[in-house]
Amino acid sequence: MKVLLIKDVYKLGHAGDVKKVADGFGRNYLLPQGMAILATPGALKQVEHIRAKANTNRSVLNSEMSGISEKVNGLLVSFASKAGETGKLYGSITSQMIIDVVNQKLGLKLDRRQVEVQPIRTLGEFKAQIRLTVDLVPEIKVLVYREGEMPAQLVEAAKAEQAAKAEKAAPVEEEKKEEAAPEA
Q1: Is the Cα dihedral 91, 95, 96, 98 positive or negative?
Q2: pLDDT per position as a tens digit, 84-113
Q3: What is the per-residue DSSP string for 54-116?
Q4: Residue 29's pLDDT is what?
């Protein structure tokens, strides 16, 4: 079945593209969701209009999401978990667990379906991608360590966070000293 995409469809194409898809996928998902229409000669005449409209919508959405992308990109998310001798976890770290921590840290409302990572079942450092838009896919680090142990990366991150807090507090203390000095 040939369809004309009206909206950007992840892993299929951008709006205005003509794609050949499986009959069931087109009939049961793309058409009812309003993501595509059948590629008839009349519909193909609207391709340029659909592309132009989608490009403007995509650019607006990308500009709105770029701030979120900057916050999320390079974020370190860590999990303490029980693991066996070989480093295999008792359970797994899922995309829902990852997105819950990201949402809590940054105050966002992202969905678990936006996280692209297989369930993590071993100790170590992993990379996960968070799909904000078709074009914006920031990457985060997921660190899984054994309960009771503190990995070096977390110790360094904690020290850096304390140093940043100390730098913010230092100018405030200097301002108080300057204010007190003229009065004396």
Answers
A1: positive
A2: 888 898 888 989 999 899 888 888 888 888
A3: HHHHHHHHHHHHHHHHHHHTT-EEEEEE-B-TTSEEEEEE-HHHHHHHHHHHHT----GGGEE
A4: 92
* C-alpha to C-alpha distance for 126 and 146, rounded to whole angstroms: 15
Neighbours of 168 (CB within 10 A): 9
pTM: 0.67
The structure tokens listed for 105 are 């840290």
The residues near 29 (Cβ < 8 Å, ≥ 6 apart) are 35
DSSP state of 30: I
Q: How far is CA 173 from CA 9, 40, 165, 166, 179, in A?
A: 53, 71, 13, 10, 10
Dig out the tokens for 81 from the structure.
């978990």
Q: Are 119 and 93 in contact (CB under 8 A)?
A: yes
Name the pairing type of β-strands 76-81 and 139-146.
parallel
Q: Which domains does the chain have, with CATH numbers?
A: 2-45 (3.40.5.10), 70-158 (3.10.430.100)
The pair of structure tokens assigned to 72 is 């999320």
Residue type, 69: S
Phi, psi of 29 (to 5 degrees): -125, -60
Question: Contact 101/80 with Cβ under 8 angstroms?
Answer: no
pLDDT digits (tens, 9 = 90+) for 126-163: 999 888 887 788 898 988 888 877 776 666 766 666 67
